Amino acid sequence: MSSTWPLEILQSLRERDDTEKKDVKYFRAFTQLAQQLENLKQSFDRSTTIGSLPHSSANHPSSSSSSSSSSSSSSSSSGNGAITSNTPSPSLVVPSSSAVKSKKQQVDDIDLRLVKAMSQNQQLANENSDLIDNLNSVTLKNEQLELTINDRDGKIRRLEKGVLKLKQKIENLEMEIKEKNKTIELVNDELLTSQLQNNVLRNQQGK
Q1: Is 24 within a domain?
Q2: Taking the model in full, what pTM does it have?
Q3: DSSP per residue over 135-188, as a string?
Q4: Where is the composition biased (Low complexity) (predicted)?
Q5: Which residue segment(s) compose the domain that 106 sits in?
């Protein structure tokens, strides 16, 4: 196995993480753009509605005036004590500057919350990236430790086999030594017998 395999594995993991990060960024950017577009549409709809109301009432001052006078005359002629109000309908009231400022403040608050949320998301993304890098580093170390352990286990197995072979050789040598000792004993016995026979022959010759 090549000695550069840890670097290759780490590079592959980093490329995978970079791809995932890019996809997450695109998805978040798309979501944010969609939300901003929806907010712009709502703001545009509100401004269009507000802008159209004064224009509508301005185009028909006579009808509004005649309606008010007719309402007053009918109220006075009826004589039932009912009181009519000349206040315009709420739907025709032009928003005051304070209401506009309030709306603007709400939009600013939403933008501020959006910026904070984006900042928090970026911080979480950075923390997630750090965690992924740490996890990849730990995974790589674990793989290296597993390889070291497997290598040591292989050496231990080879040493055990060598010990068994040496034990077998020792047993074989012990058997050979025993056989040779027996042979030596037989030779010694034969030599002793020969010496005794020689002594007997010498004694016979001396007589």
Answers
A1: yes
A2: 0.35
A3: HHHHHHHHHHHHHHHHHHHHHHHHHHHHHHHHHHHHHHHHHHHHHHHHHHHHHH
A4: 62-78, 88-100
A5: 5-63+97-166
